[in-house]
Amino acid sequence: MAPQKETLLKFTSRRYKSPSVSEEAFHAFATSDHAPKAAPIQARHGFLGVRQSFKPTALRALLTEGPFAANKPPGWTVDDHDFEIVFYVRSMEQLGGLLGDPDFQQLMADEADICDQERAELSIGWEEVFVENGKVVNIEEGKSVYQGWNESVEKLAGKKEGSKN
């Protein structure tokens, strides 16, 4: 049996730009100002990956108009956040270290006029990849190579599934 894949914490922050900031200016800030300053701090805290996704109005419209909208399953909504950043870490201590880092705190303060500070959303979980670069991956003999649910929750949350502590 092949070794199991390492399961990482995937921490996601979904953000809105400030209403007074254009989509283009927001992109320029995130890509040319914030990311080059944040990346060395994130690496210093052992982050394994950081990815930014931009969600401009023109692309969101592809989901609310035309063929997709006509066939969208009932009850599905389109996320309207402008931006998403995903961090991959091995532990919450790494994430806590970043958030407590004075250099990173200053970067967060510097974005106060760019990002809507009142409407951010956070999520945390893990990711399992089964198609990459057009190829099936992480499946051997018809089964996932990832560890099971309970093992993942216990490893990442530091407690057994269903326990209160």
UniProtKB/TrEMBL annotation:
Belongs to the tpcK family. InterPro entries: Dimeric_a/b-barrel (IPR011008), EthD_dom (IPR009799). Residues 19-117 form the EthD domain. GO terms for molecular function: oxidoreductase activity. It holds the Pfam family EthD. SUPFAM superfamilies: Dimeric alpha+beta barrel (SSF54909). This is EthD domain-containing protein.
